[in-house]
Amino acid sequence: MxxxxxxxxxxxxxxxxxxxxxxxxxxxxxxxEASCQLYELYESSEHPERxxxxxxxxxxxxxxxxxxxxxxxAFGEKAKAWLAGPADLTKVLV
Length: 94
Fold this sequence. Notes:
The structure is a single chain. By secondary structure, the chain is an alpha+beta fold. It has a single domain (3-93), classed as Alpha-Beta Plaits. Helices cover 36% and strands 32% of the residues. A 4-stranded antiparallel beta sheet has the order 2-3-1-4, with helices on one face. Strand 2 (36-43) and strand 3 (50-57) form a beta hairpin. Helix 1 (16-31) packs antiparallel against helix 3 (70-79). The longest helix is centred in the first third of the chain and has 16 residues, at 16-31.
């Protein structure tokens, strides 16, 4: 069953550009994943530190595989210095 995900991401003050660029760099890699149907980045116009990834996966297993991809692990390592905390995921079965 397809899984829709909204990942709310908050940058630390001053790290907004690093987070934006890091997320933009991820997009082509994630879109190439077998289970990825949609992967879009949005940035708040009112709160520049807030980002949302709008994602659609074939299923929960696809999302789990995504989290283990080398590009996601590399981003996670870099982003430790940029993020206020872990992404807040909202999952919706569609």
